[in-house]
Amino acid sequence: MSQTLLQLTSIDKCFGGVVALREARLHVRAGEVLGLVGENGAGKSTLINIATGLFPPDSGIILLEGETVSFSNTRQAADAGVMVVHQEADLFAQLSIAENMLLGRGLERGPGGLINWRKTNATAEGLVADLGEQFNVTQDAGSLTVARRTMAEIAAAVSTAPKVLFLDEPTASLTVKEIENLFSQIERLKAAGVGIVYVSHRLDEILTLCDRVTIMRDGATIETRKKADLTMDTIVSTMVGREMATTNAKRTVPIGDVRVDIDGITAKDGSFSDISFQVRAGEIVGLYGFVGAGRSEFAQALFGIQKPAKGRVCIDGVPLKMQSPRKAVAQGLAYLPEDRLVQAVFREHALRSNASVTLLPKLSTATVIGSRKEHALADKIITEMNVKAASMEQPIGTLSGGNQQKVIFGRWAATEPKVLILDEPTRGVDVGAKAEIHKLICDLAETGTAIILISSELPEVMAMSDRVVTLSEGQVTGEFDPQSDDEATIAAAAVPRSTEKAAAAISPLKRGIARALQMRELGLIVFIALLGGYMSITTPDTFANTGNFLDILKNAAIPAIMAQGAMLIICAGGIDISVGSMMGLVGAFAALAVKAGMPAPVCLALAMAMGISFSLANGGLSLVARIHPIIVTLAGLSIYRGVMRIVMDGKEIMFLPDGYRALADGAWLGIPKVCYYVVFVTALTHVLVRYTLLGRQVLALGNSESAARLIGLSKTKLTLFVFGCSGALVGLCAVLNAAYYGKVQANTGVGIELQAIAACVIGGTNILGGRGSALGTLLGALLVALLYNSLVLLEASSYWQNIFVGGLILAAVVVDALVQRLRGAGA
Amino acid sequence: MIQRLLNNREFILFSVLCLLFAGFSITTEYFLNLDSLLSYSRYWVAPGMLAVPMTFIIATAGIDLSVGSIVAMCGIILGVLYRDYQWPIAAACAAAILSGTAAGAVNGGVSSWFRIPPLVVTLATMTLFRGVAFGLSKADAISNFPPGFKLLGNGDLFSFTLNGSPVFVPIALGALLLTMIIGGIILRNTWMGRYTLALGENPVAALYGAIPVRGLTLGIYTACGCVCGLASLFYTAVYGTARADAAMGLELEAIAAVVIGGTRISGGQASVVGTLLGLLIIGILKYGLDLSGVRSQYVVIIVGVLLIVTAVFNEWMARRAGESK
Cβ–Cβ of B110/A801 closer than 8 Å? Predict the structure, then answer.
């Protein structure tokens, strides 16, 4: 019955010298739920990542249904039927939840390959309903609660009928009811013969759900047993049961008065609540809990990085201002963060500057750093912490993990803190350095520092602490004496249970404001109507007549077309500020070509081809060199304009032939010809962005490069595509502009890039990428043209126009930033 | 040894500079005239001054596109206050510097407070400040500044005799060198400079290292605005007029000098000495090409191409260094 699906044997994996997996193995059978448990850092995630193709093992064999496989990416693994739902999925926050679910696996498409949104949403809704859930799948994924995102992810993974499904801490943010639904779905999959690997710290769940349980410790698979042979106690003891290193025995240090008094501190986002305990001078309090227990969040709140909702902390009786790390340090608090590479180390900078960064102002006289003092400090840290380095000028990135950590430890010890919070101080550190760090912790305690030691390694906590406080699901679950209480008791207190989690309260007012600000198109129409109404009343003669309206449309036309190209580039996460110069240059070439007797349509084609090549050069260069497109296009802005001036040789190109001018000049059915181009281009980009797979992939790339890579999108291809589109539109505009005005001047196209960018951001395109609308952009361009027109009619000096473009861009991005913040607070 | 020299940025730049110098000396008549070279150096003063705070900004992985517009705006404020409101020239100068500082504070404040990338903020303010310049001046050029003020542009600090002919050292050049020295000291020797580099290297670690990230960002952009105000005085004095369309493209020259000088656009590594060498390379190139009769359009193109080439080169070098570790 229980046929083997996936088998991993003898898997080894090292990360930069740190062993993550040693001879690890995993054996998944069809139609069973396999529990995978272990402490943080035991190697569970690494094993999952190898099984699902995120990275290859250093050595070892992976068999899928008896065949050897080696996946080179997650996409291949998914195609072969091995899927994973990660704890915190990397997703496209500004795309709907339905799209997130289906983008990588195929959106529903109708005639002509266009996306059928109704069907797509219905499919997504159906998948979610299969899980017993019901929610609006058309909302942005970013505005959904973590629980619902997880459910949607699971639903999407299930929909592809996987053979093996890894669920990594799926219930971390779910409520009891959601967990029940999830479990019944898992039972259904199991009945259908899927092999499910269920990773969780919640042992009660493991014991209810799983048929067999694999226990990992220190990168190795310790054992796999049937559920019937296991109890919570046996699991816990196997998980933590390692021999204690004898070197890290704690020295006894006299314990003094209370140094830090933590009273009822509660997080804003619900990650921890009502934490209270005290630490005395010279005392080491171990804070033990699993990932998601709120340990780091708690430390960060004290350190002033995330302000808590309520609670009070006093250091030596003085209330701690939890506002910024700087203030915290000034009051005698120090925090050694958990993620050394991301949060502590300045990799390419010298060991010396890494060591001194927390004390720089103190080492300085009149802001000038005392070189001798700095060297003395670095020397002292190297000697006292026993850092092995060739020189203090060596970049810290070239040291081993343990030596890096000693430098960081020294950096904080040198501030002579009253209270020191150590967050996983020995993670990724070899055994020798670990013992040394333990000794240093004791040394510091001896000087009267109160120490909070956060660790997910129970033996370390047991050996080092005078007292252990356990944290589970953001709450203190007990206080223990490591001398008298045993490991199993403490571990059991820290194991999370499935409890109803209170969702963070969302202020309906804030949500309402955010929603109102999001209805950008409607808002723009209202605004345009109001401005138009005001103008009709104040200057009825000059404003409210057909001639003036047509003028506004004509003036809006060229920027509106350019803006569609800019919108595409911005959606993909780029920017091009050279389009104005490019338009001038292409226009000059095309005008010269037509004057040389080339037929107008050929010139148009030529212009578009030129625009495409220039634009591809911009995009291509920034991709190849991996530099931000702003640098390339800033240089391009000057280069194109310079070439244009050389080509034109100080003269205007005038008297363009009538056949050429007929491309844009004049009207058709009483409406200026340029307007037809605008409608055509807008319709085209609208369909592209809204209804084609390519357009959605561009938005996906702009939302999250890493998530886009996970579903197999090519950044190069998509970037070149948007630059190419923009280039074609630049070519078109170059011809239209020349044909419309009948000439090309040295300053043709100057500043049009800003009008285009303004139209985009006013129209609701996120300047950081990932969200954009063709209609909004059109309305944005109309609004800019209307404002210009009104200013002229109100006899405000036309010189103030620039202020409006700049001000509008600024206002639009600030409003967007505020909306994001409101939504962030709400979600 | 050779390997080490080749990896030393300043050495490469210095060699390039020497090559340029030698090349122009051979090909171009009148190039080797120190007095005219120094006299020409007045035109580098504004971009050179801007390149100093720009070095700091790029060191934090930021960018400021609005510097040229701030210079133009400050010049116009100076001119309008002097001509239309009859302010004493010294007061008008002070007002120009203050306006520049305020403009910089707007850039830094908006981008650090609302966490909007400086690229976007300064792209918008580039237009905004230029608009203020146009609005205040109504596109009218302002000249007739008093002689005392013009000294900033055409005055000389001191002169000496070389091979029998006098050589004059402009005041403006002195001011530029002073700015460079102060900037260099701040970046190399003070905690502010060290914080700047740390912020560019790893912004998260900077926050956890108790560096006041917001205040630092605000301070750097504000200081940049202040230097823009200062540069506007010299710019206006050198050209003798304040115009709303002045200093167009100055941001490109400043950024190019910084990037050519070896400061990485991704932040964390910067050197004011490098920036000075970058500025000299651009300056000598412009001067030499100018003397050779090459039109200014070509010079703009060359500066643009140099910027792209060195940016690509910098990233390539950094990646190679990363791989060899």
Answer: no
Nearest chain A Cα distance for residue B67, angstroms: 14
Tens digits of residue pLDDT in B170-215: 899 999 999 999 999 999 999 999 999 999 999 999 999 999 999 9
Domain termination residue (choose one: A215, A240, A265): A240
Domain count, chain A: 3
CB atoms B116 and A368 under 8 Å: no
pLDDT beyond 50 at A501: no
Based on the fold, state whether residues A590 and A680 are members of the same structural domain: yes
Indicate whether B19 pLDDT > 70.
yes
Q: State which residues form the domain around A584.
A: 510-826
The residue ranking higher by pLDDT, A711 or A608, is: A608
pTM above 0.95, yes or no: no
Q: Which of B314, B188, B298 is nearest to B259 (CA)?
A: B314
The alpha carbon of residue B194 is apart from the nearest alpha carbon of chain A, in Å, by: 8
CB contact set of A292 (below 8 Å; sequence gap of 6+): A169, A172, A201, A473, A496
Complex ipTM value: 0.88
* Tokens representing residue B155 in the block: 């005055």
CA distance A637 to A633: 6
Residue A226 contacts B where some CB pair is shorter than 8 Å: no
Nearest to A754 among B127, B208, B311 (CB): B127
Q: Are residues A259 and A236 in the same domain?
A: no
- 3 state SS of A572: coil
Mutate to test the interface with B, among A302, A329, A346 (most CBs of B within 10 A): A346
**Is A627 in Cβ contact with B311 (below 8 Å)?**
yes
Distance from CA of B309 to the nearest CA of A (A): 10
Residues A747 and A720 in one domain: yes
Q: Is the domain of A309 the same as that of A402?
A: yes
- Strands A368-369, A364-365: pairing is antiparallel
Residue with tokens 């272990």: A38
Q: Tell me the CATH number at A669.
A: 1.10.3470.10
Domain boundary among A494, A529, A556: A494
- Which of A810, A821, A822, A823 is the best substitution to test chain B (most B C-beta atoms within 10 A)? A810
Residues of A in contact with B68 (CB under 8 A): none
- pLDDT digit string, tens, across residues A761-773: 988 888 888 889 9
> In this predicted model, what pLDDT tens digit does every residue of A70-122 receive, in sequence order?
888 777 888 888 888 876 667 888 888 888 888 877 788 888 888 888 888 88
Residue A704 in domain: yes
Nearest residue in chain B measured CA to CA from A644:
B297
**Which domains are assigned to chain B?**
13-324 (1.10.3470)
- Chain A residue with minimum CA distance to B115: A817
A304 and A410 fall within a common domain: yes
A402 within a domain of the structure (yes/no):
yes
* Residues A367, B191: C-beta atoms closer than 8 Å: yes
